[in-house]
Design a protein that fits this description.
It contains 12 helices and 16 strands. The protein has about 475 residues and is an alpha/beta fold. The protein folds into 2 domains: about 250 residues, Metallo-dependent phosphatases (Purple Acid Phosphatase, chain A, domain 2, 4-Layer Sandwich), CATH 3.60.21; about 170 residues, no CATH class. The strands form 3 sheets. The protein has a 7-stranded mixed β-sheet with strand order 1-13-12-2-3-4-5, covered by helices on one side. A hairpin with a 4-residue loop joins strand 10 and strand 11. The longest helix has 22 residues.
Length: about 475
C-alpha cells in the first residue's frame, strides 16, 4: 500500500456548544474557545493506494432515508497498555513514550470524535491486550469513554480475541454510552434517529474457528447498515483463523459498510457496494507495525459516502532502507543517510519516531560497516538525532549489504564456498527452498511463541517472499564472514 499523497489538514474544535444529535439525548458541551490540536493530530492519508475512491474520496452509497448526514468513526485494535517487554535492553529507548503511546492514541481518537462531532464510534475488537490484568488500564479506558458520553457520542464495541482473554473485560463495568455486542449470537443495535443499524457478535472465547459473519442478521431495509467484525479474512496467511470469512460472504449480507478489525495494517478491500475496510490498529507497537496508524472517519451525506483515514499515532515506527550502492566513502554515506532520514522524519509529520535501519545493496562501504558495527551504529544514531531534531530513536540496525559482486570469492576448499553454492541453488528452485525450509526450520518454528508462529506478529515462515528474504540475509551473513576474514 503506497502513500496516497493526501495533505495534512488540521482540525479545530468548534467554538460553540453542540446540541443533541443522533440516538443520544445527552448534550455535547465542548467549551467556547477554538482548539488547535498538536502537530501529530493530522488527517494524512494512511497510504491506501489500493483504495480506488476518486479525488475527494467520494463514492455513491445507497440512499439513507433517515438523517441527511451521518458521521461515524471506525477503529479497532486499540490494545490499550499493550505490554512492551525488554525495552530496557535498548540503549536510548524512549521507554515512557513507548509505554504511553497506546493511551495517547486513544486520547487522540476521543479528541477527533468530539471535534468532528461524530454521531457514534465503532470499535471492531481488541480494546485491551490478552490477559493484561492491570485494572488501571480499564479505568483509563472508561474515563475516555465518559468524555464521549459527555459529548453525546455512543460507542459500539465488538469484543475481539484479545478482549475474550482479558481479565479487565470480565471485571469492568462500562459507562452507559458503551454498547457491547453479545457473545451468544449476532445482534443488531438500531439508531432510530439516524436510520442506522449496526450488526455484530463478540468473541466469547479467544479461539473462534467458525464464520460468524455468515449468521449475521439481515439488513434493515432502507437504513444504512454497518457490519462489525473481528476476523482474519481468507487470504491472510500470517494470521490465525479468528472468525474466518470471505469477501463473498461479506458482500452477500447486503450491508453498506463493513468495519473490520484484527489485521493491524490498514487496507480497503472493497471501495463501495459495500465498502469493506480494515482500519488497522490505532498505534504501532513494534517494528512489524510500521507507517501511519489511526482510524476511518466516515461521512454519509445525501446518499454519498466519504471515507477519510486519520492518523492518530503519537510514535511512528518505520523501517528505512539505506542502500550503499554507488557510495564511494563515509562522507557520501553520511549525506545519503541524512537525506533518507530527513525524508522519513518529514513523512512522520515530526512525530517521535522509532526507526529500524536496513543497510542494503553492495559496495565498498560494506567492509567498513561489517568490520566496525559499533562505530557504524554510533554514526547512524548521531545522524538520526540531527536529522530528526532529536525526535527519532534508532531501534535496530540491520546489516544486509554486501561487497561488490565478485570482490569476494571463497577458495575451492573454503566451507563457505559450498554454503554460497547452496544459496544459489535454493534461490533458483522455490520448491526445493520450501522443502529445505520445512526441514531446517521445523525445530526453530516449534520453539517460537504462538504470536510469532501465526499471530499478528508472525514472521511468516510459510510465506515464499519471507523465505527468499531469509535466504538473502543468510547469504549476506556468509559474505560478511568472508569480508572479516579478508586481508
Amino acid at each position: 500500500m503506497g502513500d496516497s499523497g493526501g495533505q495534512v489538514r488540521q482540525y479545530r474544535r468548534p467554538s460553540r456548544a453542540v446540541h443533541p444529535r443522533g440516538a443520544s439525548s445527552l448534550r455535547r458541551v465542548m467549551g467556547g474557545s477554538s482548539y488547535e490540536p498538536p502537530a501529530w493530530h493530522d488527517d494524512r492519508a494512511l497510504g491506501a493506494s489500493s483504495d480506488p475512491l476518486p479525488t475527494g474520496g467520494r463514492r455513491a452509497a445507497r440512499p439513507t432515508p433517515g438523517r441527511a448526514r451521518v458521521k461515524f468513526i471506525h477503529c479497532s485494535d486499540l490494545h490499550v497498555d499493550s505490554p512492551l517487554d525488554g525495552l530496557e535492553r535498548y540503549p536510548g529507548a524512549p521507554v515512557e513514550a513507548l509505554r504511553g503511546a497506546t493511551r495517547e492514541a486513544l486520547v487522540n481518537l476521543v479528541d477527533l470524535a468530539v471535534s468532528r462531532e461524530v454521531d457514534f464510534v465503532v470499535v471492531a475488537g481488541d480494546v485491551f491486550d490478552g490477559d493484561w490484568r492491570d485494572m488501571n488500564t480499564g479505568l483509563f479506558f472508561n474515563a475516555q469513554m465518559r468524555r464521549l458520553e459527555r459529548a453525546g457520542i455512543p460507542v459500539y464495541v465488538k469484543k475481539g480475541n484479545h478482549d475474550a482473554a482479558s481479565e479487565i473485560t470480565r471485571a469492568l463495568a462500562l459507562p452507559a454510552n458503551v454498547h457491547e455486542f453479545p457473545t451468544g449470537r449476532a445482534a443488531t443495535f438500531r439508531i432510530e434517529a439516524l436510520k442506522v443499524a449496526l450488526h455484530g457478535r463478540s468473541f466469547a472465547d479467544r479461539a473462534v474457528p467458525e464464520d460468524l459473519a455468515a449468521a449475521y442478521p439481515d439488513p434493515v431495509p432502507g437504513w444504512f447498515n454497518v457490519g462489525v467484525l473481528h476476523t482474519s479474512l481468507a487470504g491472510y496467511a500470517a494470521h490465525d483463523p479468528y472468525a474466518p470469512t470471505s469477501l463473498d460472504t461479506l458482500r452477500g449480507r447486503g450491508y453498506d459498510y463493513w468495519a473490520l478489525g484484527h489485521v493491524h495494517a490498514r487496507e480497503v478491500l472493497q471501495a463501495h457496494g459495500p465498502r469493506i475496510v480494515y482500519c488497522g490498529n490505532l498505534q504501532g507497537r513494534h517494528a512489524g507495525e510500521t507507517g501511519p496508524k489511526g482510524c476511518e472517519l466516515v461521512d454519509v451525506t445525501a446518499g454519498e459516502l466519504r471515507a477519510e483515514p486519520v492518523a492518530l499515532d503519537v510514535l511512528r515506527w518505520s523501517v528505512i532502507a539505506l542502500p550503499i550502492d554507488g557510495l564511494a566513502d563515509v562522507a557520501d554515506f553520511r549525506r545519503s543517510v541524512e537525506a533518507a532520514m530527513r525524508a522519513a522524519h518529514a513523512a512522520a509529520g515530526g512525530r517521535l519516531s522509532a526507526w529500524r535501519l536496513r543497510l542494503e545493496g553492495e559496495g565498498p562501504l560494506h567492509r567498513w560497516l561489517s568490520a566496525e558495527p559499533d562505530m557504524a551504529r554510533a554514526e547512524l544514531c548521531s545522524i538520526a538525532d540531527a536529522a530528526s531534531d532529536g525526535r527519532a530513536w534508532v531501534e535496530k540496525v540491520l546489516l544486509r549489504c554486501r561487497e561488490p559482486a565478485g570482490a569476494l570469492r571463497p577458495g575451492p576448499d573454503d566451507p563457505l564456498s559450498d554454503c554460497l553454492a547452496l544459496v544459489a541453488e535454493l534461490r533458483a528452485d522455490p520448491t526445493r527452498l520450501r522443502a529445505f525450509a520445512d526441514g531446517a526450520l521445523r525445530e526453530l518454528s516449534a520453539k517460537l511463541p504462538p504470536a510469532l508462529r501465526g499471530g499478528a506478529q508472525s514472521i511468516g515462515l510459510d510465506d515464499p517472499a519471507m523465505l527468499d528474504t531469509l535466504l538473502g540475509e543468510a547469504e549476506a551473513l556468509l559474505l560478511e564472514r568472508l569480508a572479516r576474514a579478508a586481508p
